[in-house]
Amino acid sequence: MSVRAYNNSLSLTSLGTTEVPYRVNDGGVYSFRIEGSLYHNHVPLIPVEGKRTKFAQIYVHDSMDLDAQVANRLNIFSNNSLDEYILGEITASLQNQNWLVQTYEMAGEILKANPEEPITLQLKC
């Protein structure tokens, strides 16, 4: 079991930056040096028609359906080695305790109630 695999499947965004080639040695912990800004890439909140939901879209699209969230997260990566039960427990914990997840789920409920109404989700961390 890889903690990194669970972390990746539950992420809301992905990291973006310009990486500067940097290598101290060939052993030890991997590190990288960035140049300029560090930012987070975000997929659109509404998935492209015919495509599976992924990352933050899962919290919006399947906002109150834990089983659907887990099933979609299990299908994000083709070489999936995640345990469905563990993923479900972590997802439920995030739904109950993580304000960012709760914000995305609330946005999903607003979108379902008013599908024609434009919505802006602004996160200030």
Span from first to last CA? 30 Å
Helix content: 40-55%
Class inferred from helices and paired strands = alpha+beta
**Over the alpha carbons, how many angstroms does the gyration radius reach?**
17 Å
Q: What average pLDDT do the residues reach?
A: 82
What ranges have pLDDT less than 50 throughout 5 or more consecutive residues?
A: none
Sheet with the most strands, sense and barrel status? 2 strands, antiparallel
Count of runs of 4 or more consecutive helical residues: 5
By DSSP, the count of extended strands is 2
Biggest sheet: strand arrangement: 1-2
- Percentage of residues in strands: 5-15%
The H-and-E topology, N to C, reads as HEEHHHH
Overall geometry: globular
Summary of the model, kept short:
This protein has a domain of 82 residues. It contains five helices and two strands, in the order αββαααα.
Give an overview in words.
The protein has five helices and two strands. It is an alpha+beta fold and 125 residues long. The chain has a domain at 3-13 and 43-113. Strands 1-2 form a two-stranded antiparallel ribbon.
List keywords for this structure.
alpha+beta; 42% helix; globular; two-stranded antiparallel ribbon
Any chance you could write out the topology, listing elements then pairs?
Layout lengths: L2 H8 L3 E7 L12 E9 L14 H6 L4 H9 L9 H14 L1 H15 L12
Antiparallel strand pairs: 1-2
